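Design review, sub-item: ligand-bound model
Attendees: FS, YL, KQ
YL presented the inputs for the acetoacetyl-coenzyme A complex:
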Amino acid sequence: MDFGFTEEQLMIQDVARRIAQEKIAPSAEHHDRTGDFPLENMRTLGENGLMGIEVPAEYGGAGMDPISYVLAMVEVAAADAAHSTIMSVNNSLFCNGILKFGTEEQKQLYVRAIAEGREIGAFALTEPQSGSDATAMRCKAAKQADGTFVVNGKKSWITSGPVAKYIVLFAVTDAEKGARGITAFMIDTTREGFHRGKTEPKLGIRASATCEIEFTDYVVRADEVLGQEGEGFKIAMSVLDAGRIGIASQAIGIARAAYEATIEYVKERKAFGQPIGAFQMTQAKIADMKCKLDAATLLTLRAAWQKHQFDNGGARFSNEAAIAKLVASEAAMWITHQALQIHGGMGYSKEMPIERYFRDAKITEIYEGTSEIQRLVIARNETGLR
Ligand code: CAA
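KQ shared the predicted structure:
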C-alpha cells in the first residue's frame, strides 16, 4: 500500500496542470458562453500525449498507466469540464476499446490519429429510444453476401459527434440474439451515408459538441468490424468500465475547482464582523466538502489501480469503476451546490465560475451510465442477483 505517486505520474500531472492553467482556464468562460468547440486546445492536449495517455508509444500515445490518466483528467476538468469530456471520450471510449479489441491495422489507423491529437473520436451507443437499456437499440447493420454490412438507423447524444472523424458504432447484427446480436464497427464520418443532426443546446459542458447522427445505407467493410461479430455489447460494457473512471475523474476536477474557490471566498468574505469561514455552519459545509472530495478521489484511484491490474491479466474492475463514478459524480453535485450556497449571490452570478461548475457537475450523474445504473451494477455485483 503506497499513497504516493511515481515520478512519471507526477510529471504527466504537471504537464496537464500547466496546459490546463495556461491555455484552458483562461478561455473556459468563452467556450461555455459561446459553445465554440475548443479544437486548438484539444490539439495541444494531443501534442502533449494527453489524448492517448494509456496508448503505447508505438500507436502515438504517452504509454502511461490509468492512475496517470486520472491525475491528468482531474487537472483538465478543474480548468474546464467541457475540455475534459472530449478528452475522456478520446482516451477511454475510443482509444481504449480499439487497443483492447482492434486489429493491428485498426490501432495504427484510428488510435494513432486520435492519440496524436490530429482527429477527434466518438462513441455511438445511445439511441433516441435506448439509453440505460442499451440492448434495446434499433440501429441495424445488415450483413451482405460479400462480407460487408449496410448500416441504417439513428444514434443520439453523441459526444463530439459534430466534429469526430472516426466513431465506434454499436449496431444490431442479429435481432434474435439480444445482447449477443450487437456488433461494434469503425465508422469514417467522411463517407457516404453518414449524416449529422443539429448540435444539442445543453445545460453544461457546453463546448463539448453533442449531436444526433444518422446512417442511411452506410457501407462498412469487413475489416472495419471491431472485435468479433456479436461481441459488440461486451465491448461497449467493458469500454464503459474504463470510461466511468474518466467521468469520476472529471467529477473530482469540477468538485476540486469549486472547493478551492470556496476556501478562498470564506476567508475573504465578511459578515457580521468576521470572515464567513469562521461561522460553524460554514465550517461544517467545508468539512463535508473536503471529506466527499477525498473519498471520491481515493475510490477513483482504487478503480484506476484495479484497471491497471486488469490490463495486466487481473480481475475485472466493473464494480470499482461504478462505485467511483457514483460517489464522485454525487460528490461533485453536492460540493458545487454547497459552493454556490456559500457564495450566495456571487455564486449565482455569471461573473464567477461557480454557477458553471454547478451546471457542469450535473452531467456526471447522467452520462456513461446514470447514478441509478451504477447502483444497479454495484448491487448486482454484490448480491449476484439480477
Ligand atoms: N464487461 C464485460 N462484459 C459485460 C459487462 C462488463 N462490464 N457488463 C455486462 N457484460 C456482459 C454480461 O456478462 C453478459 O454476457 P453474456 O451474454 O455472455 O452472459 C452481457 O454483457 C449482457 O449483460 P447483462 O445481461 O448484464 O445486460 P443488461 O441488458 O442487463 O444491461 C446494464 C446491463 C448494466 C443495465 C447496461 O445496459 C448498462 O450499463 N447500461 C447503461 C448504458 C450506458 O452507460 N450508456 C452510456 C452511453 S455512452 C455515453 O454516455 C458516452 C458519452 O457520450 C460521454
